[in-house]
Amino acid sequence: MGVDLLNVKGLSELDGAAPVVMVNLMRFRARSLDGDGSGWDAYLRYSALTVPMIKARGGTLLWTGNAQRVALGEPAGQQWDYLALVYYPSVAAFIDMMTSAEYETLCDPHRRNGCDEHVIIATREAYSKFGGV
Predict the structure, then answer these.
(1) Looking at the domain 3-123, which fold is it?
(2) Is 63 exposed, middle or buried (0-12, 13-18, 19+ CB in 10 A)?
(3) Domains of the chain: which residue ranges?
(4) pLDDT truncated to tens, each residue of the chain (133 aa)?
(5) pTM of the predicted structure, to 2 decimals
(6) Which of 21, 34, 114, 126 has the fewest CB atoms inside 10 Å of its own CB, making it the most exposed?
């Protein structure tokens, strides 16, 4: 797991200039791999460093929440601890952040230490009650 798993080919097939909301699904480790607290603690360190990078690229954190239960579908393999919806003004802004040396060296180690699994799904708005970000 890591930036090396970034699906640059798949993302490059999207309109790089169009806005995108990234749906983050996270499952945390009981203990951070670096021994500094829990997986959640490592994720909090990751977030503290990453949110300013998102904002610097014109993005924003839209929503976060604790996952409760699978409501529809087979629960096996679908137990997540936390979800986050993150808006980026473009796919290019997301790729720029994820491939930056700052993200790779400062942020990603905390994410790897804290997350047992982290899936990010690129979405394009089809409807929004909020009328844009």
Answers:
(1) Alpha-Beta Plaits (3.30.70)
(2) exposed
(3) 3-123
(4) 346 678 888 888 888 899 999 999 999 999 999 999 999 999 999 999 999 999 999 999 999 999 998 888 888 888 999 999 999 999 999 999 999 999 999 999 999 999 999 999 999 988 888 765 5
(5) 0.90
(6) 126
